[in-house]
Design goal:
The chain has two domains: 71 residues, no CATH class; 198 residues, Vaccinia Virus protein VP39 (Rossmann fold, 3-Layer(aba) Sandwich). It is 39% helix and 24% strand. A hairpin with a 5-residue loop joins strand 12 and strand 13. The protein starts with a strand and ends with a strand. By secondary structure, the protein is α/β, with parallel strands linked by helices. The protein is built from eleven helices and 13 strands. Helix 1 runs parallel beside helix 4 and helix 2 runs antiparallel to helix 4.
Length: 293
């Protein structure tokens, strides 16, 4: 149904102007994404609909999203969905927004799974600790058909988001299980000492670090902050992983750039061979720690 009075192009121009006045970064990109969502148009067909009249329902959805974004709510939450590697996932305030640097970390974990897929006559067993929206676990399951993934989180709200996203990956969902609890405590005792890969993007921001308002005011603090120094959870994972990894196991961790050297050194003290990896911006972002014979 359309009121026939305004086109999607005019609405996009209006949104861009409003976002510019509100001081929103990249107003044109924000405006386009909102018009794509309101019009139900995939990016590949976007320019075909710009001159078409907007529907009454579409205009109402557009107005609601623009108002929320104008007030500083993150675009991902406004849209309710976001892309991550090969996935399109639901996102809302119950879980951390998936970020590009985490796509790199997921890729490192996928590399470790792939390297082991040809060497064993069983599924590669993976644990994703603190799964949040589930994007790392679901990416591994989707891209590594010989994997089985146990995804954990202490937050039942985050697990509800992950569960919703799990339904969207088809047959690969049968190789993912969700477990509520605190880090390794959430895992079944039966997998102790047999995990091939452990991956985690834990909270790694200190309690005193100042965050941008768009993050601090909207994303769950429990998914961001680790404690007074910021490396509390990273340290716990490294210290406890040895009891859960198999003899050829690997640990893949995301962290802040200034934490990588410290965490790599801690893993070396635990007997791991470590490497530091950069994100798409060239900043040190992840540590891969492999057990040595």
């Amino acid at each position: 149904m359309s009121d026939g009075t305004i086109s999607w192009a005019e609405l996009m121009s209006e949104a861009e102007t409003r976002f510019g006045r509100a001081g929103i970064d990249l107003p044109a990109i924000n405006a386009r994404r909102i018009v794509e969502e309101a019009s139900g148009t995939p990016p590949s067909e976007f320019h075909r609909v710009l001159d078409e009249p907007a529907t009454v329902r579409g205009v109402a959805h557009f107005d609601s999203m623009v108002a929320r974004r104008e007030k500083g709510e993150p675009l991902q939450y406004v849209l309710g969905n976001w892309s991550f590697r090969e996935l399109e996932v639901m996102v809302d305030h119950r879980a951390l927004i998936p970020r590009p640097e985490t796509e790199v970390v997921a890729g490192l974990a996928i590399d470790e799974v792939t390297a082991r897929s040809g060497g064993i006559q069983r599924e590669v067993l993976v644990a994703d600790l603190g799964t949040g929206t589930g994007v790392i676990a679901l990416s591994i399951a989707t891209e590594c058909p010989r994997s089985r993934v146990l995804a954990t989180d202490i937050s039942p709200d985050a697990l509800a988001v992950a569960r919703a996203n799990l339904t969207g990956i088809g047959r690969a969902s049968t190789r993912v299980t969700l477990h509520e609890g605190d880090w390794f405590d959430a895992l079944p005792h039966a997998v102790r000492g047999s995990l091939d890969v452990i991956v985690s993007n834990p909270p790694y921001i200190s309690d005193t670090e100042v965050l941008p308002a768009v993050v601090m005011d909207h994303e769950p603090a429990s998914a961001l902050r680790s404690g007074p120094i910021g490396t509390e959870f990273l340290g716990r994972i490294i210290d406890d992983a040895g009891e859960w990894l198999g003899p050829d196991g690997a640990l893949v961790l995301e962290m802040a750039p200034m934490q990588t050297e410290e965490i790599a050194a801690r893993a070396k003290l635990r007997g791991y061979k470590t490497s530091i990896h950069s994100d798409l911006s060239g900043r040190a972002r992840a540590v891969v720690a492999r057990r040595t014979a």
